[in-house]
Amino acid sequence: xxxxxxxxxxxxxxxxxxxxxxxxxxxxxxxxxxxxxxxxxxxxxxxxxxxxxxxxxxxxxxxxxxxxxxxxxxxxxxxxxxxxxxxxxxxxxxxxxxxxxxxxxxxxxxxxxxxxxxxxxxxxxxxxxxxxxxxxxxxxxxxxxxxxxxxxxxxxxxxxxxxxxxxxxxxxxxxxxxxxxxxxxxxxxxxxxxxxxxxxxxxxxxxxxxxxxxxxxxxxxxxxxxxxxxxxxxxxxxxxxxxxxxxxxxxxxxx
Length: 255
Known about the structure:
This protein is mainly beta. The chain has one domain (3-49, 60-253). The chain has helices at residues 31-44, 161-164, and strands spanning 3-5, 47-49, 61-69, 78-84, 93-95, 106-108, 112-117, 120-126, 134-139, 143-145, 154-160, 171-179, 194-196, 205-208, 213-216, 244-253.
C-alpha cells in the first residue's frame, strides 16, 4: 500500500503551491500509473466502477456523496470529501483557514478522505498520530462520475463502507471542502480561498450508516447557497468553481 508522506508529496508536477514552499514535491514517481489508470477509466465512461473482487451485489453498505458548484469543476483545483469515522459526533472535519496551515486543507477530527484533483479520484486514510500529515492510499472510490462531462458542475463518489471505513463503523462526521490551492508555507499571509458546508464551513454532517436513507442540502438547517465564499482579492481564481451550491448524500444498506 503506497504511503503518502505529508499528503502533499503525492502530487504530480504542476501542482499549485505557496511561493517558497519548503516542501519538495517528492515521491512523484508513483503517481503517473495511478493518473493514467484513472484517466483511462474516466475516458471510457461517465460513471466508472473500479475493478475489484467485490461486485456491486456483494457490497453491504454504500455511501454516495454528490455535490455541485456554481460554475464548472476545475480539475486544477482541489475537491475533498472529508470523513471522521471515530464515532464521536461532537468533533469532525473543518477546513484550514489560517496559519499554521498543517496539511493545507483540513483540520479537526478526520480519518479518511476522497480527493478529486487533476482529473483523478483517490481515497485515503490518515495515519493516526501524524497530525493529519501522513495518509495511506486506499485506491479509488467504488464508483465515481466524470466531473468534466456535461453539465460539468457535479462531483459524485461512492464508497464501499465496510471495506473503506470498517464493518464496525455505524456513524460518521462528513464535510465537503473545496479550495484552489494547498497553502502550507507558515509565512504565507494571503487569503485562504475555500468553501465547505455551512456559512462558516464548520457545519460538518453527522450521518448514521446502518439505515438506508438520503440526506439533502434542502433538509439542512444551514443549507449551502451560492456566493458564500469568504471575501478575497486573489487574482485569477474562479470562485464559481469552488462555490458549493448543493449536495446529496445517500446511504444504502443491503439487507
